[in-house]
Each structure stands twice: as C-alpha cells, then as structure tokens.
C-alpha cells in the first residue's frame, strides 16, 4: 500500500477518534449534571492546554525530529484520556476537568503533528489536501454514528471504538518508514537540532507575525460558527433539532473541497486560498445574520465548502514555506497555538459578552466583519511582506 493511502487511513481513524470526544463533551457533561457555567469552564480548559502542548511538543519535535513516534505516542495518550473522561463524573469534578483539559489539548495538538508528519514526507507533502479529506470523512461519519455506541445511554461504551481506532492507527503508522530529519529547504545545511534562540528569532520574523495575526482574526470567526451561531439556531423554533445536522453538513462539505484543493494547490497561490476563505466567511455570517429560520441558517452552512478547507490548507502551507527547517514543527505549532488556541479561548468569551450586552444577531454581524478586517490587514501588509 502506498504511503499516501496509509496516511488516509490514519487521518480517518484519528479524526473519528476526535469526533467521539469533541462532539459529545456538552451532552455528556449535561447528562452528568453540570450546569451551563460549569460546562463553560470545561470547554475553556482545553484551549489553554492546546497552547501549552503546541509550544512544548513543537519544540520537542524539532529537537528529536521523530514526528512518526510523537504522532503515535500522542494518539495513545489521546485515547487514554478520552476513555478516562467518559469513565469519570461530577463526583470527581476537578480530576474530570483536568482530564478533559488534557484530552482536548491532545486532540488539537495531535492533528497538527499529523499534518507536520505528512508535510515532512516528500511523497505526500503536496497531497495533504486529499489526505485531509479522509479526516473530514472520519469526523462526519463518526458524528452520525456515535449515538449507536450509546447503549443504555452509557458513555463508557465509547471505549470500544476508541480502542479499535487506536489499534488501526498504530498498525498503519508503524508500517510507514520513519525519517530521522524534517524537510530541508534547498541550499540549507543539515541542522543538528533546534535551540531556543532559533525559536525566538522565528517569533521576531515579521512575515511569521503578520500571517499568524491574520489567521487569528479569521479563526475567531471560524470558532464563532460553532458557538454564537449554534446559540442562534437553538433559539429558533425547533432549532435544537438541527444542531447535529449543521455539524454533519459542515463536515461533509469539507470532503469534496479538500479533494478539489488537492488539484488547485499547484496552480493557486496559498495567499489566494486565505482570501477566498475570508470572503466566504464574511458572506456566510452575513446570511447567518439575516437568517430567520433554521433552514436558511443550515443553507448558509454549505458555504463551509469554500471557507475552512481553504483556510486550513493555505495557512499550513504558508507557515511551512516561511519557517526555517530547524524550527519546522515549532513554526507550525507556535502559530497554531496562537490562532487556534487563543482564538478558541477568546471567541466564545467575546461571543457570550457581545450576545449579552448587545444581541446574538449583533455578535454574529461583528464576527462576520472580522474576515473583512483580516483582508484589509493582508492588503496593507502585502507590500511589506513582498519586500522582505
């Protein structure tokens, strides 16, 4: 079996594993008797660990240059803490909180390390879009199938598919030959390791800072799609019945988008992908703002085809292209810790504040303007970036 196909299987089972955890956090916490405020603290907890894990594991990845082993190890820990989360309850709320914080942080970090592993392989680096499509397929299918594992409403049954996916992931990951070094850019010498000075130098790079800031603004809106927009959907008549359908629509739309992007990456500039994502995020939130029924809001969810996949692939490749080989993993993980970790923490808080002080529709409108602001920032910085 080709390495590409092995990675496709790994992505499918890894994202299916993440779906078992991430899509069932709120229902499980509610079933355990946690109130809305307590659930909010649980959800915010893994935004903090995401930032921490991205930084630490990114540095260690560049030090050890063993992305395969790190990816496999993270998957083992992810499954262990996910199972532990469903075996604990409110009687041990502090341990429960810590376990979810670790599991959620591992889920986000494991996905990034897997992306870096694919990008480090010469045979798969330019096929990452088609490979990631299998991740979206795994997430969407598991989101639909996960209720079938809830025998007698007992969430502990999730242990069975989680262990099965771990076994499949381990088997296929182990069969891929491990490379001792991360990709070297043409004309660079082999680097024996990474130092903190290398990372500090990267953090001072103007292109790195501008792009990370740009991605942060966009990701604030992406997160709001799963917070304030869901809140608006729930307030609509019979809207709560369509929450699961909204998740499924978004996941399924990403599959053909990733496959299409696999053909377009070589022809389009990565900056163009970011601009497309920003434009369609603004359009999508404008429709959300106008929506007066669940059906119009669900229709706007199909615009996910043009937004998140373009953003994900464009941002990953841009950071990969401007990051020195010595800090290849650190560059990705530092950037992602900011625009995913920080945005995932701040966006729900900002959305909740704006919704209470103003209104849900006003909050959605403001989040819809952020991609436009990001577009303006990119346009104003484009000359500076090209001159560097």
Q: How would a textbook summarize the main sheet?
A: none
How many helices in DSSP terms? 16
Look at the helices and sheets and give the structural class: mainly alpha
Characterize the quaternary organization of these chains: single chain
Strand content: under 5%
Tell me, briefly, the overall form: globular
The averaged pLDDT comes out at: 79
Q: What Rg do the Cα atoms give?
A: 20 Å
Residue stretches low in confidence (pLDDT < 50, at least 5 long) are 180-192
Distance between the amino and carboxyl termini: 43 Å
Description:
There is one protein chain. It is globular, with a radius of gyration of 20 Å. It has two domains: 1-180, MFS general substrate transporter like domains (Growth Hormone, Chain: A, Up-down Bundle); 195-388, MFS general substrate transporter like domains (Growth Hormone, Chain: A, Up-down Bundle). It is 77% helix and 0% strand. The protein contains 16 helices and no strands. By secondary structure, the protein is an all-alpha fold. Helix 1 runs parallel beside helix 6, helix 9 (206-224) runs antiparallel to helix 16 (360-387) and helix 12 runs antiparallel to helix 13.
